[in-house]
What does this fold into?
Amino acid sequence: MNRLKKDELKEKILEGYNESQDLRKFVKEKVRGEGIKWSEENKSNANWTEMTKKVFKKIGKEFGYEIEDTEENKEFMALDQVWFNKENGEAVLALETENSARIQVILKDEFRKLLNFKSDYKILIWYKKRKEEEEDEIYEKLQKKVNDHPKVLKNEVFFIIRLWQDGKVIGITIRELKKGKKRKKESNLQVYDLDKPEDKVKEWKEE
It folds into this structure.
């Protein structure tokens, strides 16, 4: 099996969110006023997590990988999802989702798991209510964790994926982190416009 290419994976992630009818339904049902209501009162965020894992499971199967997924309350190696090479059992991708914007939770839990797991790609997904909110400090903290961890290899790629809302537009941002590298440009994708649900999505890049 050929090694998974970074740019091809990123494009598939953007495509996967673009085509996710579950995401569109989720957004349409959960938006209240100006912000997305990511979970119902007194209920867990299980629907959000399952929707995310479904997007990645479809992508992983298209690439031909074996997928180990969370079932009920039992997580495989404490991760939400892992892709394996069917030929040799090598872990290729690890996925973790966080249903809040609390950076301390992300650093101490989800991101810590990814730092200590060996795979070519590490995916962290979280959300913010506003696209324009300042995030440089958060990404600097994540980059520092990558740089300082003694067992993170230079060829491992971290994709930090954030869902955001800008008015009635819902989108995602993907940023790449690697050990010893400066933060690279981000890829943005407008997934859904509540005022124009039939419009095609819009993608743009920023330095």
About this structure: The longest helix spans residues 46-63. The chain has five helices and ten strands.
